[in-house]
Amino acid sequence: MKRLYLFTDEDKILLNHSDGAWLLPDSSCVMDGKTELHAFSSDEAVGRVKAEIAGLCACGLRDTSRLLTAEEYQRAGKAWELLYWSEQTRFCGRCGAPMHWHTAISRRCEGCGQEIWPQLNTAIIVLVHKGDEALLVKAKTFRRDFFGLVAGFVETGESLEECVAREVREETSLVISNIRYFGSQPWPYPLGLMIGFHADYVSGEVTFADGELKDGRFFRKDNLPMREDGSLAIPGPESMARRLIEDWRKIRN
């Protein structure tokens, strides 16, 4: 049986909650016969349902990072990216004819034969060190009340390191150096690749240069922002931002 990644019109994934565990449904679940499924591996398929299926629960994709295994969460992200991409590429950008699945991860035009693959939006995220402090910021686009890190998309014609320096300068007016790679992760919100860096403060005062931030300052490890309930007001464990912050918290100064 195939494991199914079924998404609702509200972009929520359907999971089976059984005996205290959250599981991906399989092809034995009741389907209406109208859902078009796309197989992206030998035992996995993705599709969109118009109505929730009895016995299955609708969950936000980000929330599944706490419900599924790390591998299943990453595969769910890939499934969502393929579904989103397929819905955005129904017609050929060259000749306008319909596009159809050709391989598990490509689509081909039935008119001119052009074959396309998903293109990732590459983004950087950086933790800036200043002595024993780290720069945490609050973006206007954050839906929840927490402090994260400076981040932004890589532009055509620039390296990752150039992007890191530019985003920090544009968002905070700070000058940084010693930019060093930390790690990367798929970020399916949607079609993203998040690349994390550490960097060192050189000069400048924090000002919200381009208007994308509404707060930002340097924090010590023993004085991180807190919520009213006593929890840390920082990104969740599924994010690259949290991984960078936790890596910094382990460093002995």
Can you lay out the helices and strands and say which pair or pack?
Layout: E1 3-7, E2 13-18, E3 21-23, E4 38-41, E5 44-48, E6 56-59, H1 70-88, E7 99-103, E8 106-109, E9 115-116, E10 121-130, E11 133-139, E12 150-153, H2 160-172, E13 175-187, E14 192-203, E15 213-220, H3 240-250
Overview of the structural elements:
With 253 residues, this protein is of the alpha+beta class. 17% of the residues lie in helices and 36% in strands. The protein is globular and about 60 Å long. The chain starts with a strand and ends with a helix. 26% of the residues are buried.
Which structural class do you get from the secondary structure elements?
A: alpha+beta
- Just name the CATH architecture of the largest domain: Alpha-Beta Complex
CATH fold descriptor of the largest domain: Nucleoside Triphosphate Pyrophosphohydrolase
Helix and strand succession? EEEEEEHEEEEEEHEEEH
Give the termini separation: 52 Å
Number of domains: 3
Spans of at least 5 consecutive residues with low confidence = none
The major sheet is characterized as: 6 strands, mixed
The fraction of residues in strands falls at 35-45%
Helix content: 10-25%
